[in-house]
Amino acid sequence: MSGRTATDLRLGVNIDHVATIRNARGGDHPDPVRAAEMAAAAGANGITAHLREDRRHIRDHDIERLMGEIDLPLNLEMAATEEMLAIALRHRPHAVCIVPERREEVTTEGGLDAAGQHNHLKSFVTRLTDVGIRVSLFINADALQLQAAVSLGAPVVELHTGAYAHAGDEGDAAKFAAELERLAASAHAGAAMGLEVHAGHGLTFDNVSAVAALREIRELNIGHFLIGEAIFDGLPATIARMRDLMDKARAEARP
Ligand code: PXP
């Protein structure tokens, strides 16, 4: 991903929930592509969008427009299905992040079982990488899953920060520290295995700094909090503040 960055930590802005609000009324407003333009101007390095099987937020036409109208690289999140693969191969986004998807879930609740689904995932990773799409696997911070990513030939993993974020929301300091430690260990191990390590899910102004300080993490993907906070402070100011918190944490992190 390119873009303005004071440090080597990139910010991918997930715009799914602009589409959630749009879809609540069935019209065209608010437009997620306009949000992507604003995110680019405010310091995002990439745009992330999850095309779900049920199209509850981002829709096919949004992907087409994001590819055509936005200068930043697109990270398309998708389940490993033939339908989604065909869409990715047609649009050729910069990156595809393969995520687990269950129809009844509110959001992507856990990481992909890359180890358990090795045979199913292998052909998806191969067919995407063969055409030059950078493939990332959204996994829990777990050694087995990191090894599976390497054996699948995925160049990138995104560590699921949901358990870490949730522990913070619940005020469970011990679990929060343990989950951060798990993220730190996996970021370190993943980088040592040659993987590019990203992270995301549930990140906010309050919990982003400790994750941003993990030097092996190269990119954070953040959505729901940014779009929600933008209601109060506007999208540019919200993204700029997140960027500043990330850059400050990174600059002050242990070498
Ligand atoms: N990364 C991945 C792979 C995701 O699936 C999501 C949620 O769609 C995010 C990051 C962003 O999570 P949040 O919206 O909680 O910031």
Could you walk me through the main structural features you see in this protein, from its secondary elements to its overall organization?
The protein is an alpha/beta fold. It has one domain (10-250): TIM Barrel, CATH 3.20.20.70. The protein contains 11 helices and 8 strands. It has helices spanning 16-25, 32-42, 60-69, 82-91, 118-130, 143-152, 162-169, 173-192, 208-212, 224-233, 235-252; strands at 10-14, 46-50, 74-78, 95-98, 134-139, 156-160, 196-200, 217-222. Strands 1-2-3-4-5-6-7-8 form an 8-stranded parallel β-barrel, surrounded by 7 helices. Helix 7 (162-169) packs antiparallel against helix 8 (173-192) and helix 10 (224-233) packs across helix 11. The two termini are 23 Å apart. The structure holds pyridoxine-5'-phosphate.
In short:
The protein has 255 residues and is an alpha/beta fold.
Which features would summarize this protein structure in a list?
255 residues; alpha/beta; TIM Barrel; 8 strands; 49% helix
Bound compounds, each kind once, are: pyridoxine-5'-phosphate
Helix count, DSSP H or I runs of 4 or more residues: 11
User: Helical residue percent?
Assistant: 40-55%
Work out the count of structural domains: 1
- Binned strand content: 15-25%
Strand order of the largest sheet: 1-2-3-4-5-6-7-8
How do the helices and strands line up, and which of them pair or pack?
Layout: E1 10-14, H1 16-25, H2 32-42, E2 46-50, H3 60-69, E3 74-78, H4 82-91, E4 95-98, H5 118-130, E5 134-139, H6 143-152, E6 156-160, H7 162-169, H8 173-192, E7 196-200, H9 208-212, E8 217-222, H10 224-233, H11 235-252
Parallel strand pairs: 1-2, 1-8, 2-3, 3-4, 4-5, 5-6, 6-7, 7-8
Helix pairs in contact: 2-11, 7-8, 10-11
The chain binds pyridoxine-5'-phosphate.
Pyridoxine-5'-phosphate (PXP) binds next to strand 8 and helix 10.
